[in-house]
């Protein structure tokens, strides 16, 4: 299984979180410069032209990009505090025929960087009745995602997708 992880605006994938993801498959974490590349979503889509991506995971600005990348690829997505409505850096969203079957979205209720209400408003505006949308509103969670919490959400995400059957059949 191939997992793409999209980091936030001023962050990278930590070794601890990469280790969590590697339990489920091969991890690809492109270094995205959201500041200089206004077409970062298209750049991500073009980055691995011969690789079959199975799942998209992203956080903050990477959650925003992951939302659109997952739609374009028709792949399930796990998004942590995605900056889907407002961002401090402008990004072009490519016009793509998109559909997505599963989005698991984690929203920290005390996030002061990506305002929870903005994310919920965006999801209502972009509502698609065929999407399996799973929201996890977490009291006390801010913008940063602790490793143990990340591990729980990633495990839950893969347990809720068809990949769980693939993993169990391979063991």
TrEMBL record:
The keyword Hydrolase applies. Keywords: Hydrolase. Pfam families: UPF0227 (PF05728). The keyword 4Fe-4S does not apply. Gene3D superfamilies: alpha/beta hydrolase (3.40.50.1820). GO terms for molecular function: hydrolase activity. InterPro entries: AB_hydrolase_fold (IPR029058), UPF0227/Esterase_YqiA (IPR008886). This is YqiA/YcfP family alpha/beta fold hydrolase.
């Amino acid at each position: 299984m191939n997992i793409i992880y999209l980091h936030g605006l001023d962050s990278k994938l930590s070794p601890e979180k990469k280790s969590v993801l590697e339990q489920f498959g091969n991890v690809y974490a492109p270094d995205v410069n959201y500041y200089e590349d206004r077409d970062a979503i298209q750049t991500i889509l073009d980055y691995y032209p011969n690789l079959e991506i199975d799942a998209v995971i992203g956080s903050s600005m990477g959650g925003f990009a992951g939302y659109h990348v997952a739609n374009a690829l028709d792949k399930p997505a796990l998004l942590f505090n995605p900056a889907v409505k407002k961002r401090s850096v402008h990004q072009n969203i490519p016009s793509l025929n998109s559909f997505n079957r599963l989005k698991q979205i984690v929203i920290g209720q005390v996030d002061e960087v990506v305002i929870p209400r903005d994310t919920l408003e965006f999801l209502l505006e972009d509502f698609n009745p065929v999407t399996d949308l799973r929201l996890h509103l977490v009291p006390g969670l801010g913008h940063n995602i602790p490793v143990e919490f990340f591990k729980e959400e990633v495990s839950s995400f893969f347990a809720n997708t068809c990949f769980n059957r693939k993993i169990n059949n391979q063991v």
